[in-house]
């Protein structure tokens, strides 16, 4: 295996990391790996219940990709075991129990998404049920005996719940241990995670030692804020940008982030060299319109996941519809004849529903009454009106369709 | 099955019990049992590491015996599972790990001792490894999910250790759960124990309910103080009276308990009717020598485990040696010729070791120098002295041997 010099590898791995515990161990592991021509095993654990990867996941995944390019191999662990058993106390409504089939289906989706970032030939995907479901009580007690109640209750969420007298099921104390045991099972050299995984990943270091293994290095990446600019990016909070999303939607979502996040997104979500990021920072400092810099950011990120062509198209669409408030060039045509009566009045309500711009007739009516519907850029305030061939119907900011008259060919 | 009326059974079961949780449930269970002609299952868990049963265990076992006589059946659970896995944290030096063979050997000893009190035909002995060793992680988490961290940490010893910042291994939290799961496995109707088992047995009630079973009734017996009159009777504290001990030793140990315990021992260790115990209480109150009442107690208890003849003999031996300070009638003869030199001096040190009165020569010398050795009731202060045929050598209070001269037939 041809590898870069250790100090070069260190520089690449450390770039953008929030914390490494600890750099000396990482250096030694890289050295050993180079000496033995053996790639390091980089572990990432993922919850198989939510197979929609977003830019927050990508912060970690792209760091793994960099390590793969250095010659190392990734082991992605899908935590199917806990997903399959659900919540044993039956108290948590949020943890849905998954069947084995659902897990496998999710895994397939994951794979497809992961390989938009990771190198398939240097990635192994494992299910932790492989080793966890076989553990018997004696082995479980052995594992549990390697830590203490006080230590486990130090974890932030346990600590706060415990001191607030909120219920903690005894089984919950096991989750950090299971994650740690995953590291033992695959003999992880490095475990990746957001800084919110600090407790679990550091516990993995201890547990590996107890099982006679060298402790993994903990490599923490910063937590990416979602489009709201406040909360951690998360699908359930509705502030996420999926890596599989339509290029136009992705572009639009990025354009909606607060200006204060522009540089952070450049740093965490693009491959730009720090010097290039500095240039954007300067342009912002010099008073350039943040919207223009954000468009560069959006283009850069969309390009990363969808290629240059899609990125260009998404930018053009955005500029036309949102910046210049003009109809996009690729509108769908809609034949209004089935919705037009003998007096020549067209039923806009039904058209809005038909074209998917409103989920129901009542919503369509509400949209019209609120002034959210335009015909050729003029607000409409009636449900039925005469239209001409080629009229453009607009609902909200971004939904457009071109209307065709029944007596003409569309 | 012919059974006594419920209220009669209730009276017998409740007699001497420290607490029943709860009597209404017990009554209902007895009623159901009578209706279905199905005996109740009475559970007792024992630690297989210490197979020397003493009067403290007997308090509980004799209560079980009474229930067997009412037609119910006992299931004795030997906790071999935890004994076989030892202490997974490796921190406790005191919990010895037992092999399967040792466990089986201990179990055989247990059986022999248990059947001095219990009815073999209504007793089943089970090892909890039978159901615990087969539990896998999913089942363990299910079990753990049925309780909370706060609940488990309410147990007295955990509570005090936790608040004193003493280490509690995470695996230890499982022990009450495993004991509870034993109740599920055998579908216990009643669990017996000392009042110090309160937490574990009440948890068993909860856990059974979680597994869809009716909760067991908890039947707590008082804790018997040992011969020191202070601590709970326990072999490791050296204050116990084993049910298998030699009748003389048993008699002697009972004679050594503090007077304040006489009535309590009558109540907890004999089968005497409460009215008879009241008579002894009156005699004590009337100023009769407690020593004489204690002799009745000792005779009663020895009779229970060794029969009337052995009890009579033990009393006679005690009276002769301890009360009248005379040599017992059944002394062993010892030929002193191998220990006597040409000058006719006998080596007392070697004789004391030979007869087992002193563990070593230095101990024998110490005993002599401290005035603990007598020849025909006279203190000896030399290591070598001339002896005559028929001389009686006494070491301490209770060791006697008759010395024979070499030129005579013993």
From TrEMBL, chains A, B:
Source organism superkingdom: Bacteria
Coiled-coil ranges (or none): none
UniProt GO molecular function: ATP binding; RNA binding; tyrosine-tRNA ligase activity
Keywords: Aminoacyl-tRNA synthetase, ATP-binding, Cytoplasm, Ligase, Nucleotide-binding, Protein biosynthesis, RNA-binding
Catalytic reaction annotation: tRNA(Tyr) + L-tyrosine + ATP = L-tyrosyl-tRNA(Tyr) + AMP + diphosphate + H(+)
InterPro entries xref list: aa-tRNA-synth_I_CS (IPR001412), aa-tRNA-synth_Ic (IPR002305), Rossmann-like_a/b/a_fold (IPR014729), S4_RNA-bd (IPR002942), S4_RNA-bd_sf (IPR036986), Tyr-tRNA-ligase (IPR002307), Tyr-tRNA-ligase_bac-type (IPR024088), Tyr-tRNA-ligase_bac_2 (IPR024108)
Signal peptide range: none
GO aspect biological process, one term: tyrosyl-tRNA aminoacylation
Keyword Nucleotide-binding: yes
Pfam families, per the entry: S4, tRNA-synt_1b
GO CC aspect terms: cytosol
Enzyme class: ligase
RNA-binding S4 domain segment(s): 348-392
CDD domains: S4 (cd00165), TyrRS_core (cd00805)
Compartment annotation: Cytoplasm
Transmembrane segments: none
Keyword field contains Membrane: no
Motif 'HIGH' region: chain residues: 48-57
Chain's role: Catalyzes the attachment of tyrosine to tRNA(Tyr) in a two-step reaction: tyrosine is first activated by ATP to form Tyr-AMP and then transferred to the acceptor end of tRNA(Tyr).
PANTHER family: TYROSINE--TRNA LIGASE, TYROSYL-TRNA SYNTHETASE
Self-association state and partner proteins as the record states: Homodimer.
Name of the protein in question: Tyrosine--tRNA ligase
Biological source species: Thermoclostridium caenicola
Phylogenetic classification of the source organism: Bacteria, Bacillati, Bacillota, Clostridia, Eubacteriales
